[in-house]
Fold:
Amino acid sequence: MTSRRDFFRVAGVTTAGGGAVFLAACEDDDETGGGGASSQERDVRILNSALGLEHTAVAAYTAGAALLKGPALKVGRQFLAHEKEHAAGLERAIRDLGGTPNRPRRGEEYRRQFPNLRSQRDVLRFAVDLENAAVEAYIDSIPRLSSPDLRQTAAAIASNEAEHVSVLLGALNPGDPAAQVPQAFVTGIASVS
Structure:
């Protein structure tokens, strides 16, 4: 794969306003005519889809670390730790619902699908795209989750992913503080130039 868009296409992630990523497979069964799934089963599917995004982010930050330097490397390590915490929290929630958390793929499977990362800028741009996709997906998941606790967890993770986007945009545009918060609303549909 040669571009971030190719990766997102293969991974089933849409960008630039294409709707939230993983939720196509997690539609409410009553809306899609499936009828049989309980709210717990739907929650497990949604959370496992979110877990897949977190596994992808962990793999991306891990793969990109070799190209990061100085403050960007420090940030990358911090965000990797956050993504691991998100994954662990989602795994706990899935188990609490009686589900089985999806396991991550092997690192090389992710790397084969990543765009060609040759520089720190490539890594940061890819990370912005992943974080934006996560923000969009979590925002779309909130009304589909059945319990206030799960909705609160999704909102908290979406907020943290949006914070990541802001910091990454700052790293991409040093000296331009306005670049860190380019829009008044966080939607997950921001583009990077």
The CA atoms of residues 47 and 93 lie 8 Å apart. The chain has one domain: 4-13+37-180.
